Amino acid sequence: MSTRPLHLYAGCLVVGAIGSVAHASVHQDHAAHPPEVSASVRLPAPPDVAPPERWVYGYYAPWAGELVDLDWPRLSHVAVFSVDMNADGTFSGGDTWNRLGAEAVALGAPHGTRVHLTLTCFDDDVMTAVLTNTSRRSSLVEALGDAVDSVGAHGVSVDCEGVPGALRDPLTDFVVELQERVDEVTIATPAIDWSDAFDKAALSIHADAIFIMGYGYHWSGGSPGPVAPLVGGAPWNDWSLSDTVETYVDEGADPARLVLGLPLYGRTWPTTDNSVPGTATASGTAVSLSSAVDLAATHGRLYDEVTDTPYTFVSSTSQTWYDDSDSLQLKIHWAVERGLAGVGFWALNYEAGDPAFWQMVTDETTGLSPEEPEDTGSAEDTAEDTADSGAVDTAPPFDTAPPMDSADPDLVAEPRGLNFSSASVRCGGGLVPLLFAGAVGLRRRRRAAEEAG
Description:
By secondary structure, this protein is an alpha/beta fold. The chain has one domain: TIM Barrel, CATH 3.20.20. The chain contains 13 helices and 18 strands. The strands form four sheets. Strands 3-4-6-7-8-9-10-16 form an eight-stranded parallel beta barrel, surrounded by seven helices. Strands 12-11-15-14-13 form a five-stranded antiparallel beta sheet. Strands 1-2 form a two-stranded antiparallel ribbon. Helix 10 runs parallel beside helix 11.
């Protein structure tokens, strides 16, 4: 069992049921209310596109577009969403998988892109009924293996969310048994594992990859803010992608088995005004990357330097926070420098097939170009680029914790340190690892190029 410290927010011990199901609410919300996607601008990929050198793992959601619209040569894996776990050890959605799985295999085969079947379960009673029963668990493993084999696919993505801590070992056992039946197994895991339900050390041995769902740090029912902050710090909390990855590594995960999942979506919140941090007046709604970029082109693109997240004010009482190609480039660059297996995305086609975006992904996952040698920067560069938020240090935490009536900064526990290297610097109210300076250097080079142009 992990010994990582629990955090105190506003005098309350946060055990975080909300944070553990943030991605589940994304899936369910997107399926029920699909984000609008701009018209595809897909151009045929050049015939000589080399296969990705790192994992480039994408979830395909049928509501976002067609399989044929994916940039197949630039993807190492496509996980087709989804079939649902049933309490009796069967799954539903097989007919859809038979159709989409076969099509995906045919489209991916010329490029060596591997296809996975996504198994979902967001109901802890169903998970308990199956995972704790060896007979039902074995039946499900065999049924999934048959489904993969029937279309010539390559593996299974296990996407169980809101997992109770009591299922930590049975979930690992399920992955072990599934690995013995199919060629590849990945498991989607939360940005913040509140219930300590995922054995990161064991899963990084028995799964081919752990797909960290690196989004939902600000969720639909909370206040507006960065969906996938690279680092934390005032005026935000310290929860961030870098903090998440280091927590996983601290708990025994092999970085070479970690895939950093990034959002191709953002969220629009109705707010009291345009203050940052703002106050929501109702739940936020999902917006695709392509639609968010269109909004920013109309209303003006703003940028949060602390977390490397763009945002825009659609009106005086509305805020849209999202990621675009530039902010995602920094996060992909960071993941590659950190030595992770690769990156992934929820959900494919939300970027509307932007060829420039996928060229950027290819460039970042095949090393730096000769024109741009690696620049690791310095602690001073990191501090200069990330410290100037100009905000107070008394903001409430990320909305992975339940809303509180008040937030007393004296009752907020000191965040755990980040362990990227032997040295860190405190910037913007949070600990910033020196390795992050490589991504900062990339940002500085981009700015210099823009100024020179």
